[in-house]
Each structure stands twice: as C-alpha cells, then as structure tokens.
Description:
homodimer, alpha/beta, six-stranded mixed β-sheet, 12 helices, 10% strand, globular
Amino acid sequence: MRTYLDCIPCFFRQALEASRVAGAGIQTQRRVLNELAKICSGFSLTSSPPETGRIIYRLVSRITGKKDPYAKIKTESNKMALKLYPRLKRMIARSADPMAVAVRLAIAGNIIDYGVKNSLNVGHELEKILKEEGLRIPEENKKFYQYAKFKRTLAKARTVLYLADNSGEVVFDRILIEEIKKKDPWKHIFYAVKSAPTINDALKKDAKQCGIDKVAEIITSGADAPGTVLSLCTPRFLRMFRGADIVISKGQGNFEVLSLSRRPVFFLFMAKCPVVASHAGCRIGDIILRCGGEYLTREG
Amino acid sequence: MRTYLDCIPCFFRQALEASRVAGAGIQTQRRVLNELAKICSGFSLTSSPPETGRIIYRLVSRITGKKDPYAKIKTESNKMALKLYPRLKRMIARSADPMAVAVRLAIAGNIIDYGVKNSLNVGHELEKILKEEGLRIPEENKKFYQYAKFKRTLAKARTVLYLADNSGEVVFDRILIEEIKKKDPWKHIFYAVKSAPTINDALKKDAKQCGIDKVAEIITSGADAPGTVLSLCTPRFLRMFRGADIVISKGQGNFEVLSLSRRPVFFLFMAKCPVVASHAGCRIGDIILRCGGEYLTREG
C-alpha cells in the first residue's frame, strides 16, 4: 500500500505522540514537528507508510535522545498481557473450536497498538473484546474473515513464518502458536520480530518476555520500521519469507508493506485507520483475516 | 485559548480537506501541504487556533485559486436547514418550554461544522439530535449548561449581539432569535457574520438566505477568520461587542478566540475537538452553554 496524503497529518500526530512518550518538553516536541515539516515535502507517495514511519520514529529518537521511547510501555504491555494469559487459556479450553477462538484472540491482541491510538483505553477495549460475545464476527464483517481457507492452508503447512507486530500482542500470538503446536507438534514455526526499536513493535526480548521461545524459534527480520519492509530485511529472512509454507502476518503495519506481495500472506489485524480500511475495502473496526491482495481496492 | 501543538497535525488535516473541497488535484493538494510545512514552524503558540486557521485557509485559497471553496456546501447547508425549519418550529410549538427547546436547537445546529469533521454525516447526526430524546441534556453534562443564568441575563437585556458560526446553522439561530423576539419584540438584535469566506462560516448572504434579516439586523464583524478575532474586527463591531447587554457566541471558533475575554460572553457550542474540550474542562460531544471564562482550565 502506498502512502496517501491523508498520512501526512497523521505523521505529525504520531511524531508529537512519540515525542511525548519519549518525555520531551514542549520545546523539544516543537522541534520534532519543525524538523518533520522540513523534510515532509520529500516523502515519496509511492513508498509504504511504514517506510516513512521509520524516518519519523528515527527523527524522534535523534531529537529526543531516546533510542527506545516506548521501552517502558512495551514491558508493561507484555506484563499486562501475561496477566491475561491464564484467562485466555481458559477461554480456549472451554471452547468447542479452540483453534477458531485462538485465531480470534490473536487478532483481538492487535488492539495493543500505540502508533494508531494512544495507550489509555487498551485495557478497557481488550476487556470488551474478551467478553465472549465480543469474539463473535459480525455478519457484515464475515467477507473479510477467511477462517476456513486459513485453517486449510495451515493444516498442510510444515513451515510457518509468523510476523509479529506489537509488544503485549505477542502473548496473544503465543496462544495461537500453542494451539497450532497442539494440533501438530512437528510444525516448524519461526516468529519474526523487528531488529531495532520502532514504536511499540515487539523486539526479541519482548518475544522472550512473553514466552514465545517455548513454542517457536524467534528470529529478527532485519527491518527496523513499523512494518516488515522487505527491502530492509536480511537475506536469511527473505529466504524464509519466500520458502515458508504459510506466512501469518499480524497488524496494520505488516499489511501496509506486504498487501501487494505476490507470495500469498494471511493478514490478521484490526482495521484502525481510514486509509488502511479504504485500501482493504473494509470499515474501521473490522476484524480482518484474509489471504493476499485479492480483496484490495486499486491504488491511484 | 492558545494554539497547542496538537493543533499542528489538525492544521494539516484541515488544509488537505479544504484543498479537496476546492476541487484541487493530488498535485495541488500536495503543494498546499508542502507550503504549509514551510510556514508552520513560524506559527505562534500564543495566538488562538482561528488566527492560525485564517492563515491556512488563505493559503488554500491562494494555491487552489478558489476564493470561496465552501461556497456550494454553504448554499446546500442553508437549503438543508431551511427544509428542517417547519419541523423545528413544530418542535417549539408543542413544547412546554419553547425557549429551552430553541436554545437547545441552536446548539444542535452547531453540528454543521466543516472545519472539524467533514460533511457526510451531518444530516444523519442532526436527525439523531432532532428526535426528541436527543434534545435532553445528559446528567453529567449539566454543569456545562447554565440555562437559568442565560435566561435571566437575556430577559434583562435590551441589546443582543449574536455571533454567528456556520452556514446552515444560521437557520437554527433564527429559531432562537424568533423565540427571543416573541418574548420581547423590543429587543434589538444584531447578528454578526464574518466579513470574508473562511471554511463554511456564514457570510451576509447566508444570513439572508436563511431569513435572519426578518428578525435581526445583520452586521459583519470585520473578521475573516474561523472565529471572531477581535484584533481583526471593525471599530463599529468592537463598540457593539463592548456595549451589548448580552453577547451570544456560537461555535467552537468563537469560543477559542473569546474564551478569555473579560466581557462576559455566553458560549453555545458542541465540543468537537479534544483540545477545546480539554480547555473547557468538558468531554468531546458535550453540549455547552456557559458564561465567560469561569470554568476554564489554566493554560500552560
């Protein structure tokens, strides 16, 4: 997905929010916005938003002097999600279709997204979703929810590449991966995190904190953007990306960079921004589980 | 109210939206954003947002070559509101407290605001409000709704200065002015509109199209900003502003520029932006009818 002009005001909003998270004072916040203003006329509209996002979050780091502004938020998201873990496992245990619930929960975890909306309501929003009725897929949302196809492809796969998104959300991914492993302990699952801090995206230590190392092999993609930008990825990751029997991609950022990829990818996310929703042909708030680019609107 | 850093992303959003309303192509829209980026580091944070808004909407006019991008939208808002007029009058007629309903309707009309949100849902939102139950003031909103004080001050006033906000909304103002006149035909009411196009703010011809000239004297303030910025106003208007027995101010823009005014002003608006809501100490969506600056949070 390319960058739209609507992304530009949003870049300013994100830069301001990240500066505040980094603890910058008003003067420094303003400096961040001024520096962004200086460079934004050079942003390419043919790049994906996470490619530009990368430039912005690096700018914030440079000016605020904080290499990982979201470090504390990430650790706390992980802790909060780990506290939910026993409850999530109980939901799976008492379900008639544990895999279906695990997939739905993995997408629910995608609410923990600090690029799109800020922190305060995450706990509250999660709570709403975790009430059983919150897990149902509304009728008008069903066309974006290709669960049967996902299940079929997954059943046949021996190698799984799972692209992580946010910290905290990782616990929800773990629930799904545990379910996959329960069905077939021989599946080889690689869990790919970003290589350097970008917003609240999960790093290796977040994946470990959330216990992914017990169920999958954690790898870094090479990307330090809020989306797995292939041109930034390591040759090893690219081989896996091309060769895996199934690629499970979490979050809007990964969707933004891979939506037009020729290799089929299953995208699991909540549509949280109007531009992404328009690109995906869905509405804000929709629960997405779709394969590849088949449902995309054409880009002008 | 001063300009906050949160206003800067919003200025970009408004500039983009206004360029689209002006019918600009992608290239021109981008040029508007680039030009805005060039000047935004010079924006004073001690000015009010409408003072900066004025610069932005002038920039859009200059680059798109459209002197009044919202002209068509304004005419249509007026027509839409005029169609509602008989229904509004019936609501007043069958009410036990016509003045209370008229005041509530005047604030409901403030939903017609193209600076804050775009057009599509205005009809739908209005429809919701116009269902009788939509006119009730929720319990937690009541502290922002000083109707008794407003009624008392109005009853004693011989001269009324009414500051208009948006086109379309004018019809709702007319309903209130007619009610005021019904109670006291000798009140002298001046209805002040902006002097030149800015967003969808009402001009003299909008006031006439909506029939204000039948119930009040239409004057121009001298301001061509999306708020009655006193430093832009004519000496005649300023005399009226200081001398009127009551000033009724509609909309967020007028609140933003007059919230700290020493002369008491009754502000009637819906809180539609997080920065204004925070300044007023209320929540987004709250219905405001308050006098002067007494309830404001301190500005840092």
